[in-house]
Amino acid sequence: MEFWKDPITTIFDSLLKSFTSGGMTEDLATVLIYLIGILAFISFAMVLDIFLVWVERKVVARFQDRLGPNRIGPFGIFQPFADIVKLLIKEDITPFGADVVLFNLAPIFSLMSVLLLWAIMPFAPKMVGVDLNVGMLYLVAAGSIGTLSVIMAGWSSNNKYALMGAFRTVAQMVSYEIPMVAALLVVTVLAGTMGAVGIVEAQEAVPFIILSPLAFLIFLISAIAELGRSPFDLNEAESEIVAGFHTEYTGMKFGLFYAGELLHSFTFGGFIALLFFGGHRLFGLENLGPLVGALIFMGKALFFYWVIMWVKYTVPRIRVDHMLAFNWKFLTPLAFILLMVTALVGRIFLHSPWLAPALFISNILIAWLTIEYLKSHARKERDQAEASGSAPATATQH
Amino acid sequence: MQNPWIYVGIFVLVGLLIPIAAIAIAAILGPKKPNAIKQSTYECGIETVGDSWVQFKAQYYIFGLVFLVFDVETVFLFPWAVSLNSLPLFAVFEGIIFVLILLAGLVYAWKKGMLEWV
Asked: For this UniProt entry, which segments traverse the membrane (chain B) (predicted)?
């Protein structure tokens, strides 16, 4: 069965044969097949997105001790479709004085930036949109379009709350890109390649979570900040600035922002699975075929999506100065120290059986030293605060 | 697969098309009854005072600048990280010195009080 071993290539070849037999040039046929494949792929992503709305609402309900949607269909699974119909027949309001072009482009870019990430997602060895050799740079670049869309939305809305949300985005999403890129650099050093498929292949023996648990933690934290989810949801803090950058959006445009956020979370869940947990691998089960591998990958992505949700509904929002201090004074230096140590240890123990233990131990050492340093630093500040007679609570506010 | 960027290009087009289609369908189906109050700027029920494009803290700009330095740096670091295993040990130290210089910049900004939110 050729199809089960390599479904994408099989379909591609058979389509190419039938297209070219009708007198079409091979280039045109390839582009057409790409178009059909991408349309199917993105439609799948959008259907998944609709499913994620239901998952999100159901899970948050459970976290808050509620039932969640349970009226339409079994377990309320058709609720998102009702939501879509509602969003489609809502009036689309453009506020006075808004920059109409940017106002309409922002939600489009928001969803597009997420969909773009799916182009390099390797579900299984041969089930990947395209294996770019600059995959990780592409991930950062496509993610930046999302940041841009938030700034566009805030700036063009002609609303002070929206503008404030956009400013906070500049400070937050942009800042947390640095530790995220550093964590990606650590993965690149370990894998020796930037391509997503190559990174999954490099985890054949040991997944990178064991080689670099610290990089995983840094990536998880900065990914949550990039997504703008709680505890880093300052750009749409409901209790402070109404809804932040999408205050003025109604109907389907708001729906696109919402869909983009959910799909972004799931996509980052997928990237955590692929960067640190071996992608489609699960104790040899992936040998059953690429479709099983893709299912395992989706399962892992859903799990990390759930972890991101778990953090979102458990941790309260942090203050803007703490958020920036946490990034620039803690996460960024730590990430770059980790990068230097990983590069050095990885190079010294290259091709040696001690590579994995050495990397793991160096990670643990860095973590331990960081915690010890933070402890002594906190003790010093507490002593200073007590000596000067002020309350210890203010000591942490620089 | 001839050129992977053809695929990415088509992906961008389709990725733009789907949300545009969603907005277009909503524009066809939804009612259109604009009026002055509906379109006024939302500010918790209070009438808007002054221009919405307000002055903002210079702090945001400083963080933007610090970010820019690090972002440009990562572009240089990615090729180094990819080819690390085929480079001599000397190149590893070169990369580390490069990162250290940038961290020195961060420490300088830190000591200058640029990273404080006031």
From this structure: 6-29, 60-81, 87-110
